[in-house]
Structures are given as C-alpha cells and as structure tokens.
Design a protein that fits this description.
With 152 residues, the chain is of the alpha+beta class. The chain is 38% helix and 28% strand. The radius of gyration is 15 Å and the shape is globular.
Amino acid sequence: MGLIGRMFETFRVSRDDKIKHLERVPIFEDCTMKQLRRIADISTIVEVPERTVLCRAGEPGEEFFVLIDGTALVTLSPQRRGRISPGEFFGEMSLLDGEPRSATVKAETDLRLLVIDRSHFWALLREVPELTERILVTLSKRVRNTQRMLSG
C-alpha cells in the first residue's frame, strides 16, 4: 500500500498553493504554467511525522515523491546512507523499471511531500517530456556517485 493509502493527513491544497510548491523544486523549474497546473492536478500533498518510513528497500513502488519541507534519511545498505532535503525527489526508479524499491527512506523530521502515484507518473512523463530528461540526468548522477563510493 502506498503512502497516500496509509491515511496520513492529506491536505486539500489549492492548485495555486501546489504550484507555489512545485515552482521551488528544481526538477520542475522549466515547466510552463500549463504543465505546472497539470502536475498540481495529479498530485497530493501529504504530511507525515518524523520517523515515518516512506518506502522500504525490496518492496514494490507505487509512488513518486518530491520533498517539500523537512529532511529524510536514505539507506541503501548499512554502510551507505544519505540525506535528502527540500526540492529533491525519490521513488522514480521503481516506477520506471517496475522493480522493487532500491532504498529505504525514513522521515528524519516532520515532512511535507508532494506525491504522484504510478498511473499519474507515466501520464506526467508523456505530458511533460522534459521531466524524463531531468529524471534521467539525476539517475545517471546517482549511479556515478554510487560507483565512486564502491570503488573508493
């Protein structure tokens, strides 16, 4: 079950408020207002308390997350951990390849997230092809960083 389905507090946030959040996220910075409106329409704003596990390595992925407020810890293995902060996103790999989650992500602080479910994620990539490029660039950087960590 996805994060939205776990009944955390979802907010009836106006489209304009969602757009204000989206405009602060680097992956969406080149989107047109029409594209931002479309993203706002298919997304949900969720607030979760600190220590909430957002996704677990090995489990199926149903959602794409953009961190709006707060910080989260990412655990790839006991030796490989990182932190994500506002403007960063995660969860795209499972939605792209259908494989289980590659990392566990846990709220380090109370979080506000923008969440897009699997079916809407693919529609979003079709409607805003520039996002596909941004996601691929980010994935490439993550792979290179992982390779550096493993070889060094």
